[in-house]
Amino acid sequence: MKLRKMMALGLAVALTLSLSACGEKSGYKVGICQLAPHVALDAATQGFKDALAKELGDKVTIDEQNAAGDSATCGTIINGFVSNKVDLIMANATPALQAAVSATDSIPVLGTSVTEYGVALGITGFTGTVGTNVSGTSDLAPLDQQAAMIKEWYPDVKTVGLVYCSAEANSQYQVDEVQKYLEGMGVACTQYPFSDTSDMASVVQNAADNNEVLYVPTDNTAANNTGIIDNICNGKVPVFTGEEGICGGCGVATLSISYYDIGYKTGEMAAKILKGEAKVAEMPIEYAPQFTKKYNKATCDALGITAPAGYEPIG
Questions:
Q1: Is there a contact between 285 and 135 (Cβ–Cβ < 8 Å)?
Q2: How far apart are CA 218 and CA 167, in angstroms?
Q3: Which ranges constitute the DSSP H helices of 67-131?
Q4: Do 112 and 134 touch, CB atoms closer than 8 A?
Q5: 250, 243 in Cβ contact below 8 A?
Q6: H/E stretch holding 66
Q7: Is the CB of residue 217 less than 8 Å from the CB of residue 242?
């Protein structure tokens, strides 16, 4: 009888340990692929790492790699993560997300700094949840309010040039929407796409020569090369932007989100997935909780303009 009791007890202990092992693991491997080194993406990555550190501590090992602005390198980095059998991939920016989706349909993938997931992933009628191994956070600020911001600063503006990288699908989406809102306010808009840094300066110059105001959306190539825009426009043509990092480099004002905050939210989502508390396929895309009106004091001083009430200086 004692032997049977001991065997039953041993079986119960083994079952308990087995069930525990099926839940939270003792350690996790997470791969971070960031498209390029610039202020917004850096902040998102830092927020992600901080959230993971808070939620999982030393249970998580992070392999962080930067593609230096090259989309093809994103693919190489992501394929490395897949080969190393990481538990989760964080894809920072649209090309990194697209590379991850192409590389795996089983490893959970969380995007951040991605404007519109339906556009980025070619999903028609996107409703907010991807429904596969992909979810994440969006950096989309209200585009109607960005258009209204331009009219707030320049009520009599007649022409706006929309400058963006044609290789970025989410940039195209943003300028199309902003153009629609501006034209609804009686402003004539022209799109000025550049393919990469090789023709960026000439395109920006053309836009500046033929418009009163320029608008640059949340665009990774622009964010990485604000100096090109600033050299052409500073003190001559006001530039309104989709996010704070670009505005700090060459803009007048922006309606901006906190990239750190959306990165942090992505980290919280990752922790839930890794701990088995949520399934990535059921997680809707998350958005920034608030937006802030900000202006670049140095650029405004160069143009001789004063910020309207309600704008905070970029610090």
A1: yes
A2: 13
A3: 71-83, 94-103, 117-121
A4: no
A5: no
A6: strand 60-66
A7: yes
Q: How far apart are CA 50 and CA 54, in angstroms?
A: 6
The predicted-structure confidence for 24-69, as pLDDT tens digits, reads as follows 577 999 999 999 998 999 999 999 999 999 999 999 999 999 999 9
DSSP 229-283: HHHHHTTTS-EEESSHHHHHHH-SEEEE--HHHHHHHHHHHHHHHHTTS--GGGP
Q: What are phi and psi of 74, to 5 degrees?
A: -55, -45
Calpha distance 271→36 (Å, rounded): 24
Which amino acid is residue 196, in one-letter code?
A: D
Which backbone phi and psi does 313 adopt, to 5 degrees?
-70, 145
The residue-averaged pLDDT of 148-171 equals 96
**C-beta of residue 165 within 8 angstroms of C-beta of residue 221:** yes
CA 209 to chain centre: 31
The Cα–Cα gap between 58 and 52 comes to 9
- Work out whether strand 253-256 and strand 292-295 pair parallel, antiparallel, or are unpaired: antiparallel
| Cα 190 versus chain centre, distance | 25
- For residue 192, give the amino acid letter: Y
The two structure tokens encoding residue 220: 């990774």
Length of the chain: 315
Sheet with strand 60-66: strands edge to edge? 60-66, 28-34, 88-92, 109-114, 134-138, 286-287
Q: Which pTM does this prediction carry? A: 0.82
Sign of the CA dihedral running 138, 139, 141, 147: negative
Closest CA to 154 of 228, 292, 299, 253: 253
- Among all chains, which residue has been given the structure tokens 């331009």? 150
Per-residue confidence (pLDDT) for residue 136, from 0 to 100: 98
